[in-house]
Amino acid sequence: MNGFGKFLVGAAATSLLAWGAHAVGGESYIDSIGTNATSALQGAGLDGVTAIMPSEPLSRVVVLKGDVDDATREKAEAAVLAVPGVSRVMWDSDYENGAFGDRAADAAATGETASEAEVATCQGNLDELMASKVINFRSGSAYMPESSLVVVDEVASALKGCDGMAIAVGGHTDATGSAEINQQLSQERADAVAAALAERGVDAARITATGYGSSKPKVPGDGANEANRRIEFTLGNTAAPAAEGGE
Q1: Facing residues of 243 across strands?
Q2: Which domain holds residue 173?
Q3: What CA–CA distance (Å, rounded) separates 201 from 181?
């Protein structure tokens, strides 16, 4: 996340930008996940299990601790995995033994990788969905109106059928104004979309958000063209065209 707090556009934008930063990986958001995971365990009557949120590396992985039987373990894992924002659950013994791993290794180890054909099919379906959709933002901010959140709902539904695929959210702006601010704004918008997808049940561990500013125009040579202001979704390593949603 780049530049949160460097510039704020109005009170509503201030709240949204802060939310976008923490929703994707900020410390306060991670802490809130830990609090909610603990509440979920207590609500399920699992007083013998505790939830820990590791700070290094900062992530949405919840580490569980408790000397309990297999049935209780399964119940605890299910309760915590149902908490919004949680990407994965581990037990303390696995975590301490260095089994934290990275996303690619985790996916390969669990057999969750997707074939090139599957990625291409999902990308094509997403392209088709986004061909007539637009993700708008309030001018100069990362605030999405309800009409854009409806589009995010549809994207999230489509992505849930794309198991084992990395989801790259790319934010783009036109070339008007400051290049630095455009870069910050594009990152904030990509972060906001990624967070919204995670809130709608898309595995947060598979989502990355990158802001490109105006460095990759869709219509080169026309820096002010509105088509250059867009959100792109790219699945896996497919070479298929990215699905786009303009501003």
Answers
A1: 233
A2: 113-246
A3: 31
Q: Is the pTM of this model over 0.85?
A: no
* Cα distance between residue 182 and residue 214, in whole Å: 7
The mean pLDDT value of the chain amounts to 77
Q: What is the pLDDT of residues 161-215, one digit of tens each?
A: 788 789 999 999 888 888 899 899 999 999 999 999 998 888 888 899 999 998 8
Compute the distance between CA of residue 171 and CA of residue 18 in angstroms, rounded to an integer: 17
Question: Around Cβ 9, how many Cβ atoms within 10 Å?
Answer: 16
CA distance 87 to 106: 12
Whether 123 is covered by a domain: the verdict is yes
For the segment 111-135, the average pLDDT, to the nearest whole number, is 84
Domain match, 45 and 127 both: no
Highest mean pLDDT among 28-32, 70-74, 81-85, 137-141: 70-74
The strand pairing partners of 61, in sequence order, are 88
Cβ atoms within 10 A of the Cβ of 34, count? 20
Provide the CATH number for the domain around residue 179.
3.30.1330.60
* CB-based burial label for 177 (10 Å; 0-12, 13-18, 19+): middle
Residue 169's nearest CA partner among 228, 244, 115, 241 is 244
Which residues on neighbouring strands pair with residue 52, listed in sequence order?
63
Residue 21 lies in a domain: no
In single-letter form, the type of residue at position 220 comes to P
